[in-house]
## 1
Amino acid sequence: MNSINPRIYSFDYLRAFAMLLGIMLHSSLFLVETSNEWWIVPNNEVYNPYFYIYFVIHTFRMPIFFIMSGFFGSMLINRLGISDFLKHRVRRILIPFLIFVTIYAFVFPALYIFRDFYNVGNGFSYAYLTEVYNYISSPKVILNANPEHLWYLYYLFMLVLLHIFVYWAVIDKSVFKIGRYMLILLVSVIVIATFTMALFMKDVLLDIPDKGFVPLADMWLFYTCFYLFGVLIFKNKIILRSITNNLVYYILPVIVLIPIAIVLFFTYHADKRFLTKFASVSANTAITWLLSVILVGVFYKLLNFKSKVAQYISEASYWIYVVHLPLVMFLQIILAQIEMDTIAKFLIVNIISFAISIITYHLFVRSTFIGKTLNGKRYRFTKPFAQID
């Protein structure tokens, strides 16, 4: 089977890159003015460079996740068959989601309570511990639980079930191997569908379905389009050839569109007109797709090689994705009370969050049952990079 579906290291690295960008994106939020209403550490400063970091990463990061998930999902179901594919996805997606969403039902409220106590000088006081105990021992801990940043796993598992149903229902497994012009038509429909759904979201930036366990139909359909695009990439290698051969034609437009999209974002938040929203969403959708295909093309063309360091970080990235957010939030609570240059704060949160995540991965995950659950493999404990296949 490996001769039929050789491992594409570049896409492992791309998926890891998208996961690691989560640290940078979340680290920017306590420095971004738009985070006032919903982030753990409000910031009253006007728009600053950290907003642009957030803006650009937010446009493509989650779509990349779903494109890669569609690609690897299609590869796995072809290799394993329906039954083993379902077992694989339950072990690697559903079980980690259920475990960590349960843990975070306690952790995130404790962080918000800590913020309130720390801001008045109490921190880890007896009163704080009492307040946390009162909260986690009440029905609120269940009633207020949310997927938080693990919503990706939640929505992805629903897509896995849809993928299994379609694979089972379609007798001719080559149905997604289609002609060039039909492929262009289908991809065009997918792009238009994502624009249409984005147009009816609450804001011009992509909504984040991290609150509540009732799936949002528009968000699920939106990301289904990117998952389907990943399936099409796997089934039709002509897409990869087209992307890699025409990268320059994607790069130049996105360079022009990003500043236009930022101006339109500010304009929409000033006038709230539908016409402005239409223009803003149009630019954002174009950037989402352009950056997504650029990254797919660049990684596939330039980074499709075996590297012990890159593979190690790729395997660690799932753990980093799962655990980084409470680390980031805790550091932001502490640093918000310290007079310090914002660049230093941004770098401290990024570096310490990554360092703690990678160290805990090596010490407590890589060679334990946790690593086997997340990555399907358990290594003998040794120095980093020593046992990469």
## 2
Amino acid sequence: VLAAITAVTVTDASARRGFGPGGPPASIDTDGDGVVSEAEREAAAAAREAARAEREAARQAIIDEFDVDGDGVLNEEEREAARAAREAEREAEKTARYNEIDADGSGGVTEAELAASLPDVDPERVAAVFARLDADESGEVSLDEFLATSPRRNAHGRRGPGGKHKGRRGPSRRGGAIGIPGGVGDNGDDNPAGDGGGGDPLQ
């Protein structure tokens, strides 16, 4: 009975701290004892700060590169130039990934080639991805079809380098159910082109 009361007390305490009835997540409660120690709390805070600093550094790098008038923010023209450069970079990454998958260099990716690039993925999942990519149902995925896939965007808007623009949700148009290994998108997001779905500093 005492153990049960103690467990309920710990659960209630966790809920009050904002963790919910399941207790703190493993990413914070690293030793898995159900209690967030001061050291774990400090480590979590440090990780959050490091992530924030990384985002800010990426944002500042974009401003430094595209802030032509040197006022410290990106106007619409500068923002468009930054977006165009990023899109060109993404297209180059996707094209390189497409050429890797197109093993025979025919200019069309077959389902067999896609499956060969995903040896650890269930064939049914590969087939589902292929069907979504093959928009014209020709039996091959062209480069244009491959490039038409869009990465998932974060559901929460992010401020851009200019400090005023908020991100918009951009659902995948024909993204597959798996990330293709070997590409930028090895994180398993829903973008078969492998260009990731992380937060964009321009959004």
## 3
Amino acid sequence: MPRVMHSGHDAERAVQAAADEAAKIHLRRARLADPVSTAWLVDRFSPLLRLDAEHRLKAPLGMIYDAEELVQETWARALPRLGDVPPDAPRASLALTKFLAERQFEIVMELVRRHVAGGDKTVLGLKTPEAAERYADLSAETRATVSSVTGREGGRSMAEAFSALSEGERELVVMRGIEQRSYDDIAAVVDRDAGAVAADYRRALQKLRDLLPGSLFDELPDDG
């Protein structure tokens, strides 16, 4: 029997399929409050949420709020709502990434409105006594997992790779890769042609994959 040679594209698809299957299994178990699967999801997806948080927390919010606390707040609000993630999504990893980014955007908009209105600083994260009261529906084990995961080595490696991109490239990866906005939507934001935006996004994504092979960057949409 002749040996079948797989291209790099096929290999990427195989990696994505395996990651999606794992995400689907852990998502199903985390909906039932399984602590191991909950920890797996938090550990796996927090680095992307951190990149999105740092992009969102620009001045003046970035001078008031910490990205790590925003990520913790996002998980605290998202975990009880995991049932809202489409169970039949073709790619579970992307569906969960988009769901989390949407929850984080909602929090940021709350912070913006509060800041514009001149209100007091909102307490974010799970490391305060107030958090234990606000999120009493989360187990102590889950709160501990969320509170500690964002500083781990995998997240630092992704942040270092991400910092190697230009500001424009980072913006495209956040908007398309993490938030999964359409190219037309992004083009309107950056005032550029949608085709050029798509090409630049794919180049930026490939840079990240080359810098950090085998990372969560492999699972972001490449439209290929």
## 4
Amino acid sequence: MRVRRRHAAGEESIGHTDNLTLMKQNGAMNQVLTIFCKLKASEPQAMKLDATWEAFVQALNWVNQNTPEQIVNAVKLQSLCYYEVRARFGLSSNLAQQVCRRVAGSCQALVKLPTKSIVW
């Protein structure tokens, strides 16, 4: 079973909404369960979450603008910019790797559908 988490911008309240998608492979069929839950974070925690999300988005844009468009392999992209992303944006290792994977995935989609543009 694989688990994917997506952070959706919450309301102006202290809580944040988290989207948890569970994917389970049953033979030839995939089962997808999506759970929406509200995280109750204190004011300082909410501020840290918002700051981390903003740094993540800025890192996505920076990698997208500062790497060659023809690189669509996440591993190659990571070898080019991983340490710079961690140093420049203060992201954890997992988030820095996720930045590389997302940009590479978007670039792969653009190669297949050149009329689309990347929107973060």
